[in-house]
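Model it.
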Amino acid sequence: MRTLEDLNVEGKRVFVRVDFNVPLDGARITDDTRIRAALPTIERLRGDGARLLLAAHLGRPKDREPELSLRPAADRLGELLSDEVTLAPSLDEVPDGDLVMLENVRYEPGETKNDPELAKRYAALADVYVNDAFGAAHRAHASTEAVAHLLPSAAGRLLEREVATLRGILEDPKRPLVAVVGGAKVTDKIGVLDAFLDVADEILIGGAMCFPFFKAQGHEVGSSLCEDEGVEPAGRVLRAGIDKVQLPVDMVAGREFSADTEAKQINGVDVPDGWMGLDIGPVTAQRYADVVKDAGTVFWNGPMGAFELPPFAAGTRTVAEAVAVSEATTVVGGGDSAAALAQFGLADMVDHVSTGGGASLELVEGKPLPGVEALS
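Modeled.
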């Protein structure tokens, strides 16, 4: 994969694809992590004498909805750089400045279709292309894939680090390699589980995705969220990973998905009728924490329960704290796991938090990422 060291950018305009798909409350950015993550690339290119044309998407616009404008992101980037970022309203109105941001690229009809004509319009605006949007690298879109073939191109610092870190834990991890996998659906993570069956020493299962595993074993799941389509693949994973896969041995259940619901601890994994499992129990949480403590490398993706509800946050918190204080190489696969770390004030205590949930999972699964392949 080509990197910034392979480019000469002095005096040139660089089209930089960044991931500024940030959460908003009206026009207020509630988490600027992705904007901050792009700063090393932006500062390196500016330091090398480049003029920058930044491009990003926000949400899934159907038209040109003003609430999906990148104006808040441009303003926040300007604050972080102590410089003005000019927002170009359209591809036909791009000023010749040193620091310009295109309006939401998904306003362009051909963006998500990887339209070659749109890619040519992008390429006509610049001399060099840099992709630093790891969170969008698994999409073959005009600003992430097609344009990379039309200009001298390379990966930015963030994209380079993401790929190297995630490939490293699969190809040359410190042992033992422990994968902590949670979340709601087995089918969303089956590729990740298959990948870790080949390379991990321990696989710890949590979240609602444990219920298809329990159902495959013949346990009662009560009213718990249980993906029926996940029962067969869960059973297959159990058979293939009989010496690797660990499931919860106790849990915390509630009458309904609410912070105010009646809750109780279940010593075992059979959930009574009228109850739903919403967190791993304290015995399981401590077992998982002990495994993490002895690991050489930890990959964590997916919470252990409904951590956003205080009565059901303890399991995720215990695992998060174990990951944070572990002496292992710790990699968190973005998404809800990153949100949990932030909620518990632990985000700065792990080695790497991925900015791309879907992209990180596909890379771990071994799938080619179009935005990365185009830079090879």
